[in-house]
From TrEMBL:
The Tol-Pal system is composed of five core proteins: the inner membrane proteins TolA, TolQ and TolR, the periplasmic protein TolB and the outer membrane protein Pal. They form a network linking the inner and outer membranes and the peptidoglycan layer. Keywords: Cell cycle, Cell division, Cell inner membrane, Cell membrane, Membrane, Transmembrane, Transmembrane helix. HAMAP family: TolQ. The gene is tolQ. InterPro entries: ExbB/TolQ_transport, MotA_ExbB_proton_chnl, Tol-Pal_TolQ. Residues 80-206 form the MotA/TolQ/ExbB proton channel domain. This is Tol-Pal system protein TolQ. The chain crosses the membrane at residues 16-37, 127-150, 170-192.
Amino acid sequence: MHAEISFIGLFLEASLLVQLVMLLLLGMSILSWALIINRRKVLSTARSDADHFEDKFWSGSDLSRLYHESNARRDDLAGMEQIFHAGFKEFVRLQKQGRAQDSILEGTYRTMRVALSREVDRLETNLSLLATIGSISPYIGLFGTVWGIMNAFIALAEVQQATLSMVAPGIAEALIATALGLFAAIPAVIAYNRFSYQVERLENHLANFMDEFSTILNRQVMTGAN
């Protein structure tokens, strides 16, 4: 309880600029944790949905039936199922137009590539903000520290006899700004690195599925041509 009162006391006695720095860092920390919780949920759901759809895809289900199941809830599709839906829809459309084999496969692959790019953009949403918080928070905290220490020494120069007890509160409030900067930055940096790695793995997973699906469609085109 004493530490809490001391912290609040130091905050209230700090200069206005240092108080603003502390509040800004506290807000950035709260924002980063909200983003961390949200991205963790999104990426976990994306991995689970990809595994579920991949199991269904390789279970031997007919592609047309699988497409109709996906088409029935096309507004809610994401990830691997969205890539499959977009690719198969384009494949059927180009086949009905009587396009050449190469044209059908190229158009289908290009459509799936666009779907993959949109999915990666969705997964990477707000990751750049996490990176920004992680990179600038220590410098904002350091700015508050420098300003607070500067004010402490200016006040110290105005008295005849200086003591440690006179300068200690000012230095302590300044160092709190640095601590808050690190408190905001460290989780943001760790989360950004972890989430970036997870997005990269998911992207590779989806890209591998896209290539395998293209191979299946290529085989269907070749079989139909024969």
